Amino acid sequence: MSAETVTNKIEEKARESAEFIIAEAKKEAENSARKILDDAKIRENKILSQGENNAKIYESGRRQSDSLNSKIAILDLERQILEEAKSKAKAKLLNIDEETFVKIFTKHLLASSLSGEFEVVPSKVHREFVKGNIKKLEKSAGIKLTLSKNDGDFDSGFMLVGEDYDVNFTFDELIESVFERDEKVIFDILFNTGDLEK
User: What is the chain's mean pLDDT, rounded?
Assistant: First the structure.
């Protein structure tokens, strides 16, 4: 074989080797590119899935927040309605006549099961009602009552000041006690919940 043939064969072998190396490198590059793309697609899907989950969580949280805000607004409105009902009850009580005043307080005095002696401290507005009926109240309740020379610093009703304890018969206190005692019935009437027993 001539030197030229040997050179040609070496060149051909080198070319084949180079082509093989290039083909393998292309395959490797394509495989690497495909793997990179597949990994990128997987990461993209994870990010999208996580984004969707975050969006769902955010939306759920927003709905819960809206629901909570709505419930708070309803409770605030109900509280305002209850306060308005108490104000209206007090306004009506402030306009009762003397006979009704005596009936109401006789009932509350009897329900209190008091004993002993008490000084009656009336509100300025009800001093005359108390003064004119102290003996009736005393007899009905079976306790000793003495009218205070001074008016109380409250706007309605009276206080009984005893040696051991005091009893609050102001309209504010009477209204609060009625609302506490009959809270469910009052709530059902005001808000028509339909839970009233017949």
Answer: 82
CATH number of the 96-191 domain: 3.30.2320.30
Measured between alpha carbons, how far is residue 19 from residues 12, 13, 54, 144, 197 in Å? Answer: 10, 10, 51, 123, 95
Please choose, from the candidates 171, 174, 168, the residue with its C-alpha nearest in 3D space to the C-alpha of residue 155.
Answer: 171
Q: How far is Cα 33 from Cα 134, in angstroms, rounded to an integer?
A: 103
For residue 120, CA distances in Å to 26, 76, 83, 124, 136 come to: 107, 38, 28, 12, 13
Which helix H or strand E contains 18, and what residues bound it?
Answer: helix 3-94
What confidence tens digit (pLDDT) does each residue in 87-97 have? 888 899 888 88
End-to-end CA, the chain: 122
pLDDT digits (tens, 9 = 90+) for 182-197: 777 877 777 776 554 5
CA angle, 163 then 165 then 171, to 5°: 125
The domain locations on the chain are 1-95, 96-191
Enumerate the H helices of 95-161 as residue ranges. 98-111, 127-141
Residue of 68 and 150 predicted with greater confidence? 150
Say if CB 177 and CB 186 are below 8 A apart: no
160 within 8 A of 119, measured Cβ to Cβ: yes
Distance set, CA 53 to CA 43, 47, 136 (Å): 15, 10, 75
- How many Å apart are CA 107 and CA 145, to the nearest integer? 16
Amino acid type, 90: K
